Amino acid sequence: MENNPLQTTLDSPSVSVNLEELNPAQRQAVTTTEGSLLVIAGAGSGKTRTLVYRVAHLLEQGVAPDKILLLTFTRKASQEMLWRAGNLLNDSCGRVTGGTFHGISNMLLRRYGHYLGFGSTFTIIDRGDAEGIINLLKGSLGLTGRDKQFPTKRVLINILSGSVNKSMAIDDLIYEQYAHLSEHVDDIINLDKHYREFKLNNGLMDYDDLLVNWKRLLAEVPEAQRDIAARYSHIMVDEYQDTNLIQADIVRLLAHGHNNVMVVGDDSQSIYSFRGADFYNIMRFPKVFPDTTIIKLEENYRSSQPILSLTNDIIRNATEKYTKTLFTKIEGDLKPRLFAGRDEREEALFVNRKIAELQNEGVELTNIAVLFRSGFHSYKLELELNSSGVEFEKRGGLKLTESAHMKDVIAFLRLQVNVRDSLSWNRILLQLNKVGPKTAAKITDRVTMADDPLSALAEYPPGKTWKEGMAKLVQLFYDMEKESAPGVLYELIMAYYQPLFEQIYRDDFPKRQKDLDQLKSIISGYEDVQSFVDDTTLDPPDTVEDHGKQTDRMILSTIHSSKGLEWDAVFVMGLAEGRFPHMAAGIGEQMEEERRLLYVAATRARKYLFLTYPRQLMTPDRQFKRVGMSPFLSELRAGLFQRIETRDGQRSSGFDFSASPSRTVPAYPRKKKKQKLSVKDLPQGTRVTHPFFGEGTVKKSGQGRSVDVAFERHGIKTLHLDYAKLSLC
Fold first, then answer.
1. Can you tell me the distance from the alpha carbon of 322 to that of 318, in angstroms, rounded to the nearest whole number?
2. What is the CATH number of the domain that holds 404?
3. Sign of CA dihedral 111, 224, 537, 408
């Protein structure tokens, strides 16, 4: 949930904010409270600290907390900032409105959406839901079939969403970025029309709709704009370089009448154009808001000076920028290292060995990261790490609530707040055995068009094979009608869904079960279903890792996923010509964004920075070709890095390739292996725990390495100790 300005009362003693704890540039940004302000915050320069102190300072100066709006790109960021501000001052910080653009839009549209013809009970759909609707519409419009070469649902959503986020007409976007699909322009425009109608008729909004409708509310409804603009007298926006055109327009319209808006960002870290972010928003801010004060935060609190000297040089050649020079008081004279391997395998071997050396020098595995331009660039390294037994986590994958079984459960809760959500009805009905898409669609149409949807469901004549399942479903909804507490509703849903779940996902339901168990703990923390449903779409929690609570892992990550993070040691791989920048980058703004991408990667390092590339790459037709280093590296000034090369590269320093480089195994610190439990460790009455079945009691020991365990929820199970992963309570 976004922070509600009416939640907290002012009951804590006030504490004076000590501005002497800030450096001069930070202090100026905190105390410049009137008019428009642009803060160019270099990497690691205390941007968050500045925002935190500014919130506290505004409150100390007498600005009412509910007059302050803090817009961030993750809910976690706003919550952390307001919590830290509360530690500086008092509980009044809890009454500041803080959250993401989408979250604040959700709150305001539920209050003011009637001006645009929306009810307050609309449901927010995620990308998976949107793709499902597109697939449904493709079929109904006759755009599917073997003889049709129509784009996939993924590509179609990319086009429709891209046109919104880039503020471009669909046909212009297709001709510019999807020229090979130009023959389908008219059909795609027609599909978009039906997609918008479907959402409107079913009370649905996707992520883009939240922004579009918030902007419409401010631009088209004078009464709503006056009310909302007057409500927030001081606006702060974090990561402004990542905003799209619609978000920039929202900020401009929100500040109507006072222009008390502070935006914080770094033009050198604008790397999300593929999501619609517009680099020029931060560049043209002073023109949108005349008389803007510009303040630069250049003192870095993260990296050593040799690392900063190199990163300053990376961005020096950018064609458009706010010129800044990062500096630090942190001690350290170790220069970044540059390594050129013969091929990708030798590059991976080098990284693998250096990780072992760093560990032996006392650097913890969790403080090491390897970054790359694209996910497949790390495959060779993954093989080397696996062969060495190094634990790593590769960043990416589904969010917890994006998996199919989680969507199943959430569909029931979505209907609790929007009974005409046809997408959820269709999903739930398809769970019934022997009910196919056509039958589910017929029932969905009948239910969503009825004055009393639940009665319509109960009166629908079921087939013989699914009559019993339908009766249980109807009874579930009657039971849910009497309840409102999210935790109670979850228990009712799971009592119905559990046997279906074990049948639908019979191949791997034990693995999926832990997700549902985590969902139970998450939903129990909510007071109402609407807030939970909104949050699972706007800010879904991460998927549980298979490794359990293990944290002793290094990170492999794309550079895009690493932004905002930092490690003691960072390796940036694949810095070869044609790979970084990507060969499709061309010239102009795309090339400049690739430069900024390297800057972001290099500024993640605190003490050690390694830049590596292979001198030979395999082409798509499986031929090898020689490549040079990235042009971003070749233009760096001499003396900013130390070069390490293989023996045939005519220079070798700190890395011995004399012994068969392809299979030399690094000397990693040895880990103690866990001893497996034996039957002797598990006499009758011993309490044990199992990753799926939970806690239980040993009833008897079987032959060999088998034991019978009575679990509280699953009864008696016979388990083999070599496979069961039992542990003592």
1. 10
2. 1.10.486.10
3. positive
What burial class does residue 527 get, using C-beta atoms within 10 Å of its C-beta: 0-12 exposed, 13-18 middle, 19+ buried?
Answer: exposed
Residue whose C-alpha is closest to residue 699's, from 685, 718, 682: 685
Q: Which of 721, 718, 712, 720 is nearest to 693 (CA)?
A: 712
Q: 189: domain range? A: 123-202
The reported pLDDT for the residue numbered 676 is: 65
Residue 30 confidence (pLDDT): 95
Report phi then psi at 48, rounded to 5: -65, -40
Taking the CA atoms of 501, 503, 504 and 507 in sequence, report the sign of the dihedral they define.
Answer: positive
pLDDT, one tens digit per residue, over 307-340 is 999 999 999 989 889 999 999 999 888 999 999 9
Asked which of 486, 511, 538 is the last residue of a domain, the reply is 538
d(CA 74, CA 725): 37
Q: Taking 50 as the threshold, does the pLDDT of residue 365 lie above it?
A: yes
Domain boundary among 649, 666, 687: 649
Rounded distance, CA 63 to CA 310, Å? 42
Length of the chain: 729
663 located within any domain: no
> The domain that contains 687 carries what CATH number?
2.40.10
Are 476 and 559 found together in one domain? Answer: no
pLDDT tens, position by position, 399-451: 666 778 888 999 999 999 888 888 899 999 999 988 988 899 899 999 998 98
**Same domain, yes or no, for 85 and 215?**
yes
Q: Would residue 7 count as lying in a domain?
A: no
The reply to whether 413 and 514 lie within a common domain is yes
Sign of the Cα pseudo-torsion (328, 329, 335, 336, in order):
negative
Q: How many domains does the chain have?
A: 5
Query: What is the rounded average pLDDT for all residues in the chain?
Result: 85
The distance in angstroms from the start CA to the end CA of the chain is: 35
Give CA–CA dist 88/157, Å, rounded: 44
Q: What are φ and ψ of residue 672, in 5° steps?
A: -75, 130
In SS3 terms, 417-441 reads as HCCCCHHHHHHHHCCCCCCCHHHHH
| 520 plus 580 within the same structural domain | no
Is 723 within the bounds of a domain?
Answer: yes
**Residues sharing a CB contact under 8 Å with residue 669, sequence separation 6 or more, in sequence order:** 359, 360
Q: Is the pLDDT of residue 540 over 80?
A: no
CB 412 within 8 A of CB 418: no
* Range with top average pLDDT, 171-180, 203-212, 646-655: 203-212
- Yes or no: say if 641 and 310 are a contact pair by the CB < 8 Å rule: yes
Strands 687-690 and 694-701: antiparallel
The answer to whether residue 280 is domain-embedded is: yes
Cβ contacts of residue 85 below 8 Å, gap of 6+?
52, 53, 55, 56, 59, 93, 96
Residues 96 and 192 in one domain: no
Type of residue numbered 157: I
222 and 292 share one domain: yes
Q: Are residues 425 and 524 in the same domain?
A: yes
pTM of the predicted model as reported, rounded to 2 decimal places? 0.75
* Token representation of residue 312: 């300053």
Distance CA 163, CA 193 (A): 13
- Whether 451 and 526 map to the same domain: the answer is yes
Supply the CATH number for residue 347's domain.
Answer: 3.40.50.300
Q: Do residues 633 and 601 touch, judged by C-beta distance below 8 A?
A: no
Closest to 604 measured CA to CA, from 375, 376, 369, 391:
369
Burial 565-603 (b: 16+ CB within 10 A, else e): ebbbbbbbbbbbbebbbeeebeeeeeebbbbbbbbbbbb
Find out whether 19 and 53 touch, Cβ atoms under 8 Å.
yes
Residue of 220, 275, 272, 280 whose CA lies nearest to 248: 280
Residue with token string 């060779």:
380
The helix or strand, by DSSP H or E, that contains position 597, with its residue range, turns out to be: helix 589-602
